[in-house]
Amino acid sequence: MMKFVACILFASVVQPRLVRKRQTPCPEVCDTSRCPPSSDSCYYGVVKDYCNCCIICASGERDICGERGIGVCGEGMVCDYEQGKRRHRGTCVCISTEPVCGSDGRTYPSLCRLRAENRRAGLSGTPPVIQIQKGHCDSGSLNPSSMRYKFNFIADVVDKIAPAVVHLELFRRLPYSQQEVPVSSGSGFIVSEDGWIVTNAHVLSNKQRIKVELKSGAHYDATVRDVDEKIDIALIKIESDKHLPLLLLGRSSDLRPGEFVVAVGSPFSLQNTVTTGIVSTTQRGGHELGLKDSDMEYIQTDAIINASQGWKNVH
Asked: Signal sequence: where (predicted)?
């Protein structure tokens, strides 16, 4: 009998306290002077309290939310209540639930987390964090549904051809001296695994030594094997005991006006420079270009190519 009475007394003490906490009335007039001081670390933004009076820090993801001061969710979030407990405690969840990639290279589980990090960066004086793309940071060029995957075909071409494009540095020996000085540069591309390289004939004029540098950083001395000044093409060769990347020569007769062009070369010694354009025409006669003695046909393109810097690999 005594235990039963004690339980009743305990319940009568606790229950009024809970009721008073849940039903704390809002003031009839909002007096902001009585509001607590605002915090400097409201990473999920600021909101007005449940009485729509004081400015408080918004609750973040997975924080408790609900009625009567439990918490108010920040921008882009809603209070998710358990079924059957609509007017009690809930949890703040972000409306946008897919991961996003930030400008800091990190993947955030939601847009709300990224916004919180951006506010944190602003308060600490570090660079802002903005959304770069939806999805994980490492999936931009690999995710088939991403814009980068669908439309970056030029980058795919460059990835394939760049290892076979070489940079040429040409030297000449000074008169009455054995000292060599670099006098010009150019580019070319490897056409066979045993080291044959195509470049421009005019690049090799009056040069005594040719140094070839691959994209991998490997260096070789090259020898001139054949030169055709009429079509401005030369063949040089390097000796390597390693497997060399190569490109196959295409057929100009297969080209169509309007096709995309990707050109890779070393203009002004700037290695692996990429330019793009289209094929304007495939059979431009030399007489149309003012070359009276030319019986050749030329491919016209609007890709930016600096002819004085040697062969530029075109795909």
From this structure: 1-16
Angle ∠(114,120,121) on CA atoms, nearest 5: 90
Phi, psi values for residue 8, rounded to 5°: -65, -45
Residue 160 neighbours by CB distance under 10 Å: 13
Residue whose structure tokens are 């190519």: 305
pLDDT tens figures, 87-145: 677 899 999 989 999 988 899 999 999 999 999 998 888 999 999 888 888 655 666 66
Query: What are the extents of the domains in the chain?
Result: 100-151, 162-238, 252-314
Alpha-carbon span 276 to 302, nearest angstrom: 8
Q: Are strands 77-81 and 90-94 parallel, antiparallel or unpaired?
A: antiparallel
Burial degree of 251 (CB within 10 A; 0-12, 13-18, 19+): exposed
Q: Which CATH superfamily is domain 252-314 in?
A: Trypsin-like serine proteases (2.40.10.10)
**Residue 133, CB half-sphere, CA atoms under 13 Å: how many?**
15
Residues in the chain: 315
Q: How far apart are CA 50 and CA 200, in angstroms?
A: 77
Q: 103 — alpha (psi -120 to 50), left (phi > 0) or beta?
A: alpha
Q: Which CATH class is domain 100-151?
A: alpha beta
In this structure, what token pair is assigned to residue 109? 């589980």
Phi, psi of 156 (to 5 degrees): -65, -40
Residue 188 neighbours by CB distance under 10 Å: 29
Q: Among 33-37, 113-117, 205-209, which stretch is predicted with the lowest mean pLDDT?
A: 205-209
- Hey, what amino acid is at 250? G
- Global confidence as pTM: 0.54
Does this chain's domain 100-151 share its CATH topology with 162-238? no
Q: What is the second-level CATH architecture of the domain 162-238?
A: Beta Barrel (2.40)
Strand partners, 59: 73
Which residues, 6+ apart, have CB-to-CB distance to 260 below 8 Å?
153, 154, 276, 277, 278
The strand pair at 131-134 and 100-102 is best described as antiparallel
